[in-house]
Amino acid sequence: MILKNISYNDKALKREVEKLVGPAFSWYERFKMNGIGSPKFKLIRANAAIEALLAVDNRRWQCHIELRPGGIILAFRSRLETYGWIVPYRNLSIFKNEGYLSLYSSQYFVKVVWESQSIAANKFLMKLLKLKSKVAEEEAMPDKPVQ
């Protein structure tokens, strides 16, 4: 649930991100999942902090989402910097309305244009929901005794 500048290779930031959402999937896992990134989405609305970063740039508001074992990283560009909204699955709420996909966390939210005809976008959403439910199941299940 943090918003950070992820443009640079900062080891402390990398550890913080991995603590929240886990390390990046291995090459083999990415191949098995048929990719872990979303297509580009047109961002139409966000909370004040994210909109303030986007407003200083003349570009179209676009973002993409990267899946991690424990959450997502929603990345967007502002000027020459790349910012990431890092959200664990347990704090992520997803709403799909007519033509829009809304992602919410405790203090941040993003609303993107959802093209329901897009096969890539629908496949990505299914992967996201599958990972989110898998993590929720693992957190709900008490540790099984080793036999």
Overview of the structural elements:
This protein is α+β, with helices and mostly antiparallel strands and about 150 residues long. The chain has a single domain (about 1-130), classed as Roll (PH-domain like). About 30% of the residues lie in helices and about 35% in strands. It has 4 helices and 8 strands, in the order E-H-H-E-H-E-E-E-E-E-E-H. The protein has helices at about 10-20, 25-30, 50-55, 120-140; strands spanning about 1-5, 40-45, 60-70, 70-80, 80-90, 95, 100-105, 110-115. It has an 8-stranded antiparallel β-sheet. It is globular. It starts with a strand and ends in a 7-residue tail after the last helix.
Give the arrangement of secondary structure elements:
Blueprint lengths: L1 E4 L5 H11 L5 H6 L8 E6 L1 H8 L6 E7 L2 E8 L2 E8 L4 E5 L2 E5 L4 E5 L5 H22 L7
Antiparallel strand pairs: 1-5, 2-3, 2-8, 3-4, 4-5, 6-7, 7-8
What's the short story on this structure?
The chain has 147 residues and is of the alpha+beta class.
Domains counted in the coordinates: how many? 1
Q: Outline the biggest β-sheet.
A: 8 strands, antiparallel
> What's the alpha carbon Rg, rounded to whole Å?
16 Å
Count of runs of 4 or more consecutive helical residues = 4
CATH topology: PH-domain like
What's the pLDDT, averaged over the residues?
Answer: 90
Q: What is the CATH architecture assignment?
A: Roll
Q: How many angstroms separate the termini? A: 37 Å
Low-confidence stretches: none
Envelope shape: globular
User: What topology, given as strand order, has the largest sheet?
Assistant: 1-5-4-3-2-8-7-6
Structural class of the secondary elements? alpha+beta
Q: What is the strand content?
A: 25-35%
Topology as H/E string? EHHEHEEEEEEH
Number of strands: 8
